[in-house]
Amino acid sequence: MSDKELVNRWETKIADKLVGKKIKAVEYFTEKECEEMMWDSRPIVIIFDDDSYIFPMADDEGNNGGALATSFTDLSTIPVI
Hints:
This protein is an alpha+beta fold. The chain has one domain (about 5-80). About 30% of the residues lie in helices and about 25% in strands. It has 2 helices and 5 strands, in the order H-E-H-E-E-E-E. It has helices at about 5-20, 30-35; strands at about 25-30, 45-50, 55, 70, 75-80. The chain is globular.
């Protein structure tokens, strides 16, 4: 599979899950949730109107919570706590 095909496959799969959803809430992981994940950093959780959610991780293996880069001039990074 070419890189272009791989990118297209993942973009399609991700778009199917995210496009059109509305954000219902944004919360930071609790200390207990991070302890259960064995994480030192508390990332945000974006909760959608159908109660599905996403959150950033440091890597594909889920080794820690991650920050989010944004296009907002006054909030270029959403930090971990």
